[in-house]
Amino acid sequence: MTVLSVSDLNVSFSTEEGRLLALKNVSFDVPERRIVGIVGESGCGKSTLINAVLGLLAKNGRIDSGSILFEGRSELTSLGPAQMRALRGVRISTVFQDPMGALNPVISIGQQMVNIQYRSKRSKAEKIALAAEMLKQVRIPDAEAALARYPHEFSGGMKQRIAIAMALMMEPSLLIADEPTTALDATLEVATIELLKALQEKIGCSVLFISHHLGVIAELCDDVVVMYAGEVVERGTTRQVFNDPRHPYTLRLLECDPARQHERTRHLPTIPGEIPDLRRRPEGCIFAPRCHRRHAACAAAPPDIDVGRGHVARCFLADRPEPAEATA
Amino acid sequence: MSGDPILKVDDVEVAFPVGRIGRRSSILGVAGVSFEVHRGETFALVGESGSGKTTLARAVNGLQAISRGTITFEGRRIDGLARQAMKPIRKRMAMMFQDPVGSLSPRMTVGDLVTEPFRIHGLEDRNLKDETARLLALVGLTRDFANRYPHQLSGGQARRVGVARAIALNPTLIIADEPTAGLDVSVQGEVLNLLNELRERLGLAMVVITHNLHVVHHIADRVAVMYLGRFVETGETEAVFQAPAHPYTAALLSANPEPDPDKARDRIALPAEVPSLLARPPGCEFHTRCPWAEARCSREVPARRDVGGRRVACHFPLAPGARPPPRKERPHV
Q: What's chain B's average pLDDT?
């Protein structure tokens, strides 16, 4: 079963300077029990996408067309606020970048963990026991005592683990994790993604994992979706996309990561140019102004080309990859 | 890298008072570190949050009083100088703070921001228009940026303005605190390339603070790894990356996920939590998290010694390519 299926989603915002098309024909699937990574740089529409899924778009935003199908039966684009509230936190839960912002500073951890179970029919004692059990699962030492403590008494890494425990407590079928490790140190980042993976396997949920950190995506995710300026430019399994990128943007993005440069260099690769102004979206390929393979055809919008086994790239040349030496 | 160092930090300690009156004690944010930076050289400070990197940088810049040691800049002692005496020194020693947008005043235009250093130091007699043009050109921004406000800049552009402010008064030393934090990878390269290019062109010395080891690998000549306010390993970047001698360095290096799904992972797992500065562990302060720790490590403080051209504070420095012992053999934990 596909837990989340987004197809041809278009989202726009009305601004003082006209309509801004923030997501254009976005399609991808989150299959059952898989971790799907969304990678892209600032302004690529990652946050707009998850807000659209969660029904939390800002007032000036609207879904123009397309569908977001959840668990094969709920069409999220047509649910009312009350129906969305019934899904959020129960079937779809979230972990955000800033754990301090996600926890209430004046309520103890235990009380918060009981409060969020308000829809559950369990007894109070059972709720407390479940909260303690979840804290144990995310390796908070002395879990029972930790319930009485307040957020400021925990380190940043522990707070993020508590946020993960809270998100997974109701055993959702989809966890949306928005840059959950960005604010953490490298050593904690690794520990946190390993924990997330272990819990995901145990609970059997799917995860939509948003990050700009290519290394974390490569390590954690089964599938990856690459976004640029509000479009999905490439998607496939992590191996397909990282080992055989077919969109020039993916290729350039991977080259830019200093972690991929094993030889010490004083000059790091960059992508020249800037993200286009989405209020004046070019007619053709969105990446064309910065693309090293631009040609006459790019003046028209490129199709999504399937280069095999679900590996899709939105580029005219997707089925004609560059010879390896040309990119060196 | 000959001649006198531009910056010499000798046995510097920064103490912060803690506790109520009557029971007052202090913790050491920086606990006795020494290093030198020479002209044209980039020195990197790495470590986890709370390791004292930023405190050390602030101490060097005179923003934080030190409780022991000396700081010598261009041959002159600068520790303990009064505010007024420090001011001319800051013309020669520029600081780039974290958070590219937050460190720029939202009410000033880019033109005002890059010439603010001249006004602070009473140098308005210079032709500020020309200076603006010169500085914007140096950091690769076009002239029309002079009329923009910080909220109209992207993260990378805001960083470039920060760099322009730092180099405005022709400093000899730049201290850059997390110069690429929060930037996208495609822009991160631009900022690092710019800093490298300016360092070469203007013969600057640089101290770069970062937690991103991949960045250190490409820009720093020498690196110091900090843990609980002390240097546990210092040496040439290339040597440290090839064969880390301190277990903490090895763990930090192995904790960096690489963008390669097929990469074999031999990760050195550290128990997650950094000890509190209020209760520093006895002996080697890293022994509570060290996979190689032995009984001696919890009793004796390791001396800093030379291992393969590096200074390492460890009883049992690692051989190149050392793998952590299986967990059950660990005497502690």
A: 88
Residue B222's DSSP bridge partners are: B43, B236
For residue A267, give the 3-state DSSP assignment: coil
Average pLDDT rounded to a whole number, residues A51-65 = 93
C-alpha B18/C-alpha A20 separation (Å) is 52
Q: Which residues contact B258 (CB under 8 A, 6 or more apart)?
A: A215, A218, A259, A260
Contact B238 A264 (CB under 8 A): yes
Task: Measure A233 CA to nearest chain B CA, in Å.
Answer: 16
Contact A149, B175 (CB under 8 A): no
Question: Could you report the per-residue pLDDT of B9-27, keeping only the tens digit for each?
Answer: 999 999 998 888 888 888 9
Q: Which residue has the tokens 């098309």?
A: A21
Model ipTM value:
0.79
Q: What is the pLDDT of residues A297-326, one digit of tens each?
A: 999 999 999 998 899 999 999 988 776 544
Tell me, letter by letter, the H, E, C secondary structure of chain B.
CCCCCCEEEEEEEEEEEECCCCCCEEEEEEEEEEEEECCCCEEEEECCCCCCHHHHHHHHCCCCCCCEEEEEECCEECCCCCHHHHHHHHHHEEEECCCCCCCCCCCCCHHHHHHHHHHHCCCCCCCHHHHHHHHHHHCCCCHHHHHCCHHHCCHHHHHHHHHHHHHCCCCCEEEEECCCCCCCHHHHHHHHHHHHHHHHHHCCEEEEEECCHHHHHHHCCEEEEEECCEEEEEEEHHHHHHCCCCHHHHHHHHCCCCCCCCCCCCCCCCCCCCCCHHHCCCCCCCCCCCCCCCHHHHCCCCCEEEECCEEEECCCCCCCCCCCCCHHHCCCC
Instruction: Name the nearest CA neighbour of B94 among B124, B61, B120.
Output: B61
Which of B260, B263, B276, B277 best tests the A interface by mutation, with the highest count of A CBs <10 A? B260
Q: Do A42 and B269 touch (CB under 8 A)?
A: no
Residue pair A208/A175 in contact (Cβ under 8 Å)? The answer is yes
pTM (predicted TM-score): 0.85
